[in-house]
Amino acid sequence: MKKLAIITIFSILMTGCATAPPTKDYSKFNAAGIRSILVIPVVNNSVEVSASDYFLSTVPIPVAEHGYYVFPVNLVKRVLEDDGLSDANLVHSASTEKLCELFGADAALYIIINRWEAQYIVFSTRVTVELTYVLKDGVAGEEIWRDEETMVYSTQDSSSGNPLADLIAMAIVAAIAKAKPNYIPLARQANQKAFAYPGAGFPHGPYAKNKASSAEEK
User: Fold this and answer.
1) Residue 171 to residue 125: CA distance in whole angstroms
2) Domain presence at residue 2
3) Whether 202 contacts 135, CB under 8 Å
């Protein structure tokens, strides 16, 4: 019995170690002394053409609330277009140092939309938003933070006691969600989770209200 108990405890400890999220290294981030962040146009790998513009509108506020100056995304997009970088893929492949120098930014935030879709599955619709976030230092162009988030919403069924009426209601709700899915709440949730600190996100900046700066959070 004692031997079995030891094996059980060891197994639990090993399981806990296997599932524990990796600790992020913030040494490069803190060394960069970031005060301002340039939000780069979003690369859209989904089939939804308008996904990048809709999602881009959800990014500046949470980053600014995190304590950093954020350059107006529409102005950034226009300046880059005037500079011959009208395609987001071209912007992502350009030199980070040059981009940050153009705007006087300390760092650049790159975001890729991997999935932005609504799938109809037997009287329900599954809406999925999958994103990759990368922050690069504006001086050396090095990656100093990365995160990936996937948010999913499924239309929920409810029972009225009438099976036929329930099926009809579920079909209508699912059809509406498929025809006009609301991605924005999922995008905002993904941003909130990605930037959360302590958590997956990066330390708060110098302009954060009622929160410690990155130097104090090391």
Assistant:
1) 9
2) no
3) yes
| Residue ranges making up the domain that contains 191 | 23-116+128-151+183-195
How far apart are alpha carbons 115 and 122 in whole angstroms? 21
pLDDT higher than 60, residue 214: no
Q: By C-alpha distance, which of 122, 129, 130, 128 is closest to 175?
A: 122
In three-state secondary structure terms, 145 is strand
Confidence (pTM): 0.76
The H or E element that residue 52 is part of is helix 51-56
Burial of 64: CB neighbours in 10 Å, binned 0-12, 13-18, 19+: middle
216 pLDDT above the threshold of 50:
no
Residue 70 located in a structural domain: yes
Condensed to tens digits (0 to 9), the pLDDT of residues 138-152 reads 999 999 999 999 999
CA atoms within 13 A on the CB side of 198: 5
Closest CA to 32 of 109, 143, 110, 197: 143
Distance CA 89, CA 54 (A): 17
Query: Given this model, what pLDDT does residue 121 score?
Result: 65
Q: Given the structure tokens 């950093």, which residue do they identify? A: 68
Domains contained in the chain, number:
1
CATH, residue 76: 3.40.50.10610
Q: Is residue 69 part of a domain?
A: yes
